[in-house]
Amino acid sequence: MSIHALLLQLTYRVNGIKAHTINGYSTFVVGDLEMLHDVYGLRHQVYCDELKWVKSLPSKIEVDQFDSESIHFAVTDPQGNVIATIRTLDMHQDWFVDQYFSPTLVYSTALLKQQKTVEASRLAINPKYRQRKLASNNITALDMLLTCLIDYSSDVQGREMALITTTPLMGVTLKRRGVAIEQVGPILTMVDGCKVASFMCDLAVTKDCYRAYQAIVQLANPQ
After folding, report:
1. CA-to-CA distance for 28 and 144, rounded, in angstroms?
2. Into how many domains does the chain fold?
3. What is the mean pLDDT of the chain?
4. Which of 54, 152, 184, 211 is deepest in the core (most CB within 10 A)?
5. Which domain, by its residues, includes 216?
6. Cα dihedral 25, 75, 104, 204 sign
7. Cβ distance 120 to 87 under 8 Å?
Protein backbone atom coordinates (compact mmCIF):
# COMPACT_ATOMS: atom_id res chain seq x y z
CA MET A 1 0.00 0.00 0.00
CA SER A 2 1.29 3.47 -0.91
CA ILE A 3 2.13 6.16 1.64
CA HIS A 4 -0.73 8.22 0.21
CA ALA A 5 -3.17 5.35 0.83
CA LEU A 6 -1.96 4.89 4.41
CA LEU A 7 -2.29 8.61 5.13
CA LEU A 8 -5.75 8.64 3.60
CA GLN A 9 -6.93 5.75 5.75
CA LEU A 10 -5.55 7.50 8.82
CA THR A 11 -7.33 10.72 7.83
CA TYR A 12 -10.69 8.97 7.55
CA ARG A 13 -10.21 7.16 10.87
CA VAL A 14 -9.16 10.26 12.81
CA ASN A 15 -11.16 13.05 11.19
CA GLY A 16 -14.00 10.95 9.85
CA ILE A 17 -14.83 12.78 6.65
CA LYS A 18 -12.28 15.21 5.21
CA ALA A 19 -9.97 14.25 2.33
CA HIS A 20 -8.31 16.92 0.17
CA THR A 21 -8.19 20.72 0.38
CA ILE A 22 -6.89 22.95 -2.43
CA ASN A 23 -7.23 26.75 -2.50
CA GLY A 24 -9.98 26.55 0.11
CA TYR A 25 -12.00 23.94 -1.80
CA SER A 26 -12.37 20.70 0.13
CA THR A 27 -13.59 17.18 -0.58
CA PHE A 28 -15.48 15.14 1.98
CA VAL A 29 -16.89 11.73 2.63
CA VAL A 30 -20.09 13.14 4.09
CA GLY A 31 -20.69 12.24 7.71
CA ASP A 32 -22.39 15.40 8.93
CA LEU A 33 -26.19 15.75 8.83
CA GLU A 34 -26.04 19.44 7.93
CA MET A 35 -23.75 18.76 4.98
CA LEU A 36 -25.93 15.82 3.93
CA HIS A 37 -28.94 18.17 3.88
CA ASP A 38 -26.96 20.52 1.61
CA VAL A 39 -26.08 17.55 -0.64
CA TYR A 40 -29.77 16.73 -1.03
CA GLY A 41 -30.49 20.40 -1.68
CA LEU A 42 -27.98 20.55 -4.53
CA ARG A 43 -29.47 17.37 -5.99
CA HIS A 44 -32.93 18.97 -5.88
CA GLN A 45 -31.55 21.99 -7.72
CA VAL A 46 -30.10 19.79 -10.48
CA TYR A 47 -32.51 16.85 -10.79
CA CYS A 48 -35.79 18.62 -9.91
CA ASP A 49 -35.42 22.28 -10.87
CA GLU A 50 -32.98 22.01 -13.79
CA LEU A 51 -33.40 18.58 -15.41
CA LYS A 52 -36.95 18.00 -14.12
CA TRP A 53 -36.29 14.25 -13.92
CA VAL A 54 -37.73 14.22 -10.40
CA LYS A 55 -40.84 16.01 -9.16
CA SER A 56 -40.06 19.20 -7.24
CA LEU A 57 -40.80 19.01 -3.53
CA PRO A 58 -41.66 21.75 -1.00
CA SER A 59 -38.74 20.55 1.14
CA LYS A 60 -36.33 21.42 -1.71
CA ILE A 61 -34.32 18.27 -1.02
CA GLU A 62 -34.05 15.25 -3.33
CA VAL A 63 -33.80 11.91 -1.52
CA ASP A 64 -34.52 8.34 -2.63
CA GLN A 65 -34.54 4.84 -1.17
CA PHE A 66 -30.86 4.27 -1.98
CA ASP A 67 -29.50 7.15 0.10
CA SER A 68 -29.59 5.40 3.47
CA GLU A 69 -27.20 2.72 2.14
CA SER A 70 -24.93 5.08 0.20
CA ILE A 71 -21.57 6.70 0.79
CA HIS A 72 -21.95 10.38 -0.12
CA PHE A 73 -19.10 12.55 -1.39
CA ALA A 74 -19.07 16.34 -1.60
CA VAL A 75 -16.93 19.29 -2.61
CA THR A 76 -17.31 22.56 -0.71
CA ASP A 77 -16.22 26.08 -1.64
CA PRO A 78 -14.10 28.26 0.69
CA GLN A 79 -17.30 29.40 2.46
CA GLY A 80 -18.37 25.82 3.15
CA ASN A 81 -21.15 25.62 0.55
CA VAL A 82 -21.64 22.26 -1.18
CA ILE A 83 -20.90 22.75 -4.88
CA ALA A 84 -20.68 19.15 -6.08
CA THR A 85 -21.78 15.72 -4.93
CA ILE A 86 -21.94 12.07 -5.94
CA ARG A 87 -22.72 8.86 -4.05
CA THR A 88 -21.71 5.21 -4.23
CA LEU A 89 -23.47 1.96 -3.46
CA ASP A 90 -21.27 -1.00 -2.58
CA MET A 91 -21.18 -4.39 -4.29
CA HIS A 92 -23.32 -5.99 -1.58
CA GLN A 93 -26.23 -3.57 -2.06
CA ASP A 94 -29.01 -3.06 -4.58
CA TRP A 95 -27.99 -0.65 -7.33
CA PHE A 96 -29.72 2.42 -8.74
CA VAL A 97 -28.95 1.35 -12.31
CA ASP A 98 -31.10 -1.79 -12.01
CA GLN A 99 -34.20 0.26 -11.28
CA TYR A 100 -33.73 3.15 -13.70
CA PHE A 101 -31.09 2.43 -16.35
CA SER A 102 -30.91 -1.35 -16.84
CA PRO A 103 -31.19 -1.00 -20.69
CA THR A 104 -27.72 0.61 -20.62
CA LEU A 105 -26.12 -2.66 -19.51
CA VAL A 106 -25.19 -5.70 -21.58
CA TYR A 107 -24.05 -7.62 -18.50
CA SER A 108 -26.01 -8.23 -15.31
CA THR A 109 -25.08 -6.17 -12.28
CA ALA A 110 -24.45 -9.45 -10.45
CA LEU A 111 -21.60 -10.12 -12.87
CA LEU A 112 -20.27 -6.57 -12.53
CA LYS A 113 -20.32 -6.80 -8.75
CA GLN A 114 -18.07 -9.86 -8.91
CA GLN A 115 -15.32 -7.49 -10.11
CA LYS A 116 -15.33 -5.69 -6.72
CA THR A 117 -17.35 -2.80 -8.10
CA VAL A 118 -19.12 0.17 -6.53
CA GLU A 119 -21.88 2.00 -8.35
CA ALA A 120 -21.66 5.79 -8.55
CA SER A 121 -24.84 7.79 -9.10
CA ARG A 122 -26.62 11.07 -8.47
CA LEU A 123 -23.78 13.27 -9.71
CA ALA A 124 -24.76 16.91 -9.21
CA ILE A 125 -22.60 20.00 -9.73
CA ASN A 126 -23.60 23.61 -9.19
CA PRO A 127 -23.89 25.15 -12.69
CA LYS A 128 -21.40 27.90 -11.78
CA TYR A 129 -18.72 25.28 -11.13
CA ARG A 130 -19.17 22.88 -14.05
CA GLN A 131 -16.45 24.51 -16.13
CA ARG A 132 -14.72 26.65 -13.51
CA LYS A 133 -11.07 25.91 -12.76
CA LEU A 134 -10.35 25.72 -9.03
CA ALA A 135 -6.57 25.41 -9.21
CA SER A 136 -3.67 24.95 -11.59
CA ASN A 137 -3.61 21.98 -13.96
CA ASN A 138 -7.22 22.85 -14.90
CA ILE A 139 -8.60 21.12 -11.81
CA THR A 140 -12.41 21.29 -11.56
CA ALA A 141 -14.99 20.43 -8.90
CA LEU A 142 -15.68 17.21 -10.81
CA ASP A 143 -12.00 16.26 -10.64
CA MET A 144 -11.91 16.80 -6.88
CA LEU A 145 -15.12 14.84 -6.42
CA LEU A 146 -13.89 11.88 -8.45
CA THR A 147 -10.52 11.90 -6.69
CA CYS A 148 -12.24 11.54 -3.33
CA LEU A 149 -14.48 8.75 -4.67
CA ILE A 150 -11.54 6.90 -6.24
CA ASP A 151 -9.40 7.09 -3.10
CA TYR A 152 -12.15 6.05 -0.71
CA SER A 153 -13.48 3.24 -2.90
CA SER A 154 -10.03 1.76 -3.59
CA ASP A 155 -7.94 2.57 -0.52
CA VAL A 156 -10.58 2.32 2.20
CA GLN A 157 -13.18 -0.11 0.79
CA GLY A 158 -10.75 -2.18 -1.27
CA ARG A 159 -12.81 -1.95 -4.47
CA GLU A 160 -11.32 -2.19 -7.96
CA MET A 161 -13.99 -0.86 -10.31
CA ALA A 162 -16.74 1.77 -10.38
CA LEU A 163 -19.85 1.78 -12.54
CA ILE A 164 -21.28 5.16 -13.48
CA THR A 165 -24.23 6.02 -15.71
CA THR A 166 -23.86 9.41 -17.34
CA THR A 167 -24.09 11.16 -20.69
CA PRO A 168 -21.97 9.80 -23.55
CA LEU A 169 -20.39 13.25 -23.79
CA MET A 170 -19.27 13.07 -20.17
CA GLY A 171 -17.85 9.62 -20.87
CA VAL A 172 -15.81 10.95 -23.78
CA THR A 173 -14.63 13.93 -21.72
CA LEU A 174 -13.47 11.78 -18.82
CA LYS A 175 -11.67 9.36 -21.12
CA ARG A 176 -9.79 12.24 -22.75
CA ARG A 177 -8.73 13.44 -19.30
CA GLY A 178 -7.25 10.03 -18.50
CA VAL A 179 -10.06 8.27 -16.63
CA ALA A 180 -9.91 4.56 -17.50
CA ILE A 181 -13.54 4.00 -18.49
CA GLU A 182 -15.21 1.76 -21.05
CA GLN A 183 -18.84 1.83 -22.13
CA VAL A 184 -20.61 -1.41 -21.16
CA GLY A 185 -23.90 -1.23 -23.06
CA PRO A 186 -26.10 0.74 -25.44
CA ILE A 187 -27.05 4.40 -25.16
CA LEU A 188 -30.49 5.04 -23.66
CA THR A 189 -32.53 8.08 -24.77
CA MET A 190 -34.62 9.55 -21.96
CA VAL A 191 -38.14 10.94 -22.50
CA ASP A 192 -36.72 14.47 -22.58
CA GLY A 193 -34.22 13.49 -25.29
CA CYS A 194 -31.21 13.30 -22.95
CA LYS A 195 -28.91 10.38 -23.74
CA VAL A 196 -27.22 8.28 -21.05
CA ALA A 197 -24.86 5.31 -21.05
CA SER A 198 -23.13 3.18 -18.44
CA PHE A 199 -19.36 2.99 -18.06
CA MET A 200 -17.00 0.82 -16.00
CA CYS A 201 -14.00 2.60 -14.50
CA ASP A 202 -10.81 0.78 -13.47
CA LEU A 203 -9.76 2.61 -10.31
CA ALA A 204 -6.11 1.51 -10.23
CA VAL A 205 -5.47 2.37 -13.88
CA THR A 206 -7.25 5.69 -13.42
CA LYS A 207 -4.90 6.62 -10.58
CA ASP A 208 -1.98 6.21 -12.98
CA CYS A 209 -3.56 7.92 -16.00
CA TYR A 210 -5.97 10.58 -14.69
CA ARG A 211 -3.89 13.75 -14.81
CA ALA A 212 -6.15 15.78 -12.54
CA TYR A 213 -6.13 13.01 -9.93
CA GLN A 214 -2.35 13.08 -9.80
CA ALA A 215 -2.31 16.88 -9.58
CA ILE A 216 -4.86 16.94 -6.74
CA VAL A 217 -2.98 14.35 -4.70
CA GLN A 218 0.26 16.27 -5.17
CA LEU A 219 -1.23 19.69 -4.37
CA ALA A 220 -3.16 18.45 -1.34
CA ASN A 221 -0.24 16.39 -0.01
CA PRO A 222 2.96 18.30 -0.89
CA GLN A 223 6.22 16.48 -0.22
Report:
1. 10
2. 1
3. 90
4. 152
5. 3-220
6. positive
7. yes
